[in-house]
Amino acid sequence: MQPQDSGVQYSRWKDGSRDEVNVVAVANSGEASRCERVCRKLCTGKLGITMKVLGGVALFWVVFILGYVTGYYVHKCK
Hints:
Layout: E1 8-12, E2 19-23, H1 34-43, H2 45-74
Antiparallel strand pairs: 1-2
């Protein structure tokens, strides 16, 4: 159903009782672009966990500051 060079292969047995899906990782270090290599480095392993935690903390503070400023102007005494 899928071409052989794609990363996902699907096959259905004739009796219909079983489906099988295979995901094949197609990754050659020579074919990976610079962006893919940087993303893979920053999004996996201990560095990836650290980046996600720092991103979450930064997002928390941005939302907190926006809420504080918005609340200040909404509830400001006239």
